[in-house]
Specification:
By secondary structure, the protein is of the alpha/beta class. It has 2 domains: 215 residues, 3-Layer(aba) Sandwich (Rossmann fold); 63 residues, Alpha-Beta Plaits, CATH 3.30.70.100. The strands form 3 sheets. A 6-stranded mixed sheet has the order 5-6-7-3-8-9, with helices on both faces. It has a 4-stranded antiparallel sheet with strand order 11-12-10-13, covered by helices on one side. It is elongated and about 80 Å long. The protein starts with a strand and ends with a helix. Bound molecules: adenosine-5'-diphosphate (ADP) and magnesium ion (MG). Adenosine-5'-diphosphate binds next to β2 and α1. InterPro entries: AAA+_ATPase, ABC_transporter-like_ATP-bd, ABC_transporter-like_CS, P-loop_NTPase. Belongs to the ABC transporter superfamily. This is ABC-2 type transport system ATP-binding protein.
Length: 300
């Protein structure tokens, strides 16, 4: 699969703040990537670096397998990293014509892109009459005018009402379905789950996880177990049970991570037959979801 962007050991410091810390990941053609992390975790800084508006401290990134200079490569990138800013007294069409003029691209894509973002009916309305959601959609249309290989969005639904959020997410999915690679930054777990095929989770500039969103949701969770006596025996008996991928001791508890679906009663039965009576048994949600929730609830 073609690599659109490769980031290696990227680092950015603002004085004492380590905004991006040794970050590495690849973007492959056709996927929808989310950079997920709480506010202040380095998402916008990372996007700024790859778009050449923020200088990196160290590390590397290369666009399109390094076949193009960053300057050339960025002509094949559509990005919205700031609040949409158009001329208030000009219509959608007039604003997009101006963008075409500045970027030296023909006008012939304007109507098509307005249709993509469901603004065709309002193409002759002045920008200042648009809702925030419509403004954001116009920004997306603008970023699509040059048929980019990849569309980059920073917190695309921030500040929108539920209807506006829904519309933007649907449009992003439609654009992805037409084959455009997408990279979006978000502090919202459910946004990434709903829109993205892949996720890079960061906190304080450090990558915590990267992989497919499916894998994340296919996780089978874990058990917390405890016995009054002999926890060594419990460990031993659990270790031969099919479906437990790892065991560890955490303070008073034994944590058993599952690689297939096992119910609490199944495991309880099995242990009872082996002479073990538990004093504590809890099945927890997938650990990654826990991690996500901790990330998004506590920090944002
Ligand atoms: P996110 O987009 O995930 O919310 P940012 O990339 O905006 O996070 O910020 C990451 C960290 O870098 C934060 O601690 C932020 O305060 C800091 N930061 C971002 N831009 C600057 C800047 N221009 N000068 C100083 N600190 C900055
Ligand atoms: Mg940001």
């Amino acid at each position: 699969m073609e690599t659109i962007l490769s980031i290696k050991n990227l680092d950015k410091r603002f004085g004492n703040i380590h905004a991006v810390n040794n970050l590495s990941f690849d973007i492959k053609k056709g996927n929808v990537y989310g950079i997920l992390g709480p506010n202040g975790s380095g998402k916008s800084t990372t996007l700024g670096i790859i778009l050449n508006v923020v200088n990196k401290t160290s590390g590397e990134f290369s666009w399109f397998d390094g076949k193009l200079s960053t300057h050339q490569a960025l002509k094949k990138v559509g990005a919205i990293i700031e609040r949409p800013n158009f001329y208030p007294y000009m219509t959608a069409i007039q604003n997009l014509e101006l963008v075409c003029k500045i970027k030296e691209i023909p006008y012939n894509k304007i109507e098509e892109k307005l249709k993509t973002v469901n603004l065709f009916e309002r193409k002759n309305s002045k920008f200042k009459t648009y809702s925030l959601g419509m403004k954001q959609r116009l920004a997306i249309a603008s970023a699509l005018l040059n048929d980019p290989e990849i569309l980059i969005l920073d917190e695309p639904t921030n500040g929108l009402d539920p209807q506006g959020i829904h519309e933007i997410r649907k449009i992003i999915k439609d654009i992805a379905a037409q084959g455009t690679t997408i990279l979006l930054a978000s502090h919202l777990l459910d946004e990434v789950e709903k829109v993205c095929s892949h996720v890079v989770v960061i906190r304080e500039g450090i990558k915590l996880y990267s992989g497919s969103v499916d894998e994340m949701t296919a996780s089978h969770g874990l058990f917390e177990l405890k016995v009054a006596t002999d926890s060594d025996k419990l460990m031993e008996i659990l270790s031969i049970y099919d479906g437990i991928s790892s065991l560890k001791n955490e303070e008073e508890l034994i944590i058993a991570t599952l690689n297939k679906q096992i119910s609490a009663s199944e495991i309880n039965n099995y242990l009872f037959k082996n002479g073990i009576i538990l004093s504590h048994l809890v099945k927890r949600k997938p650990s990654l979801e826990q991690q996500f929730l901790t990330l998004t609830n506590n920090k944002s």
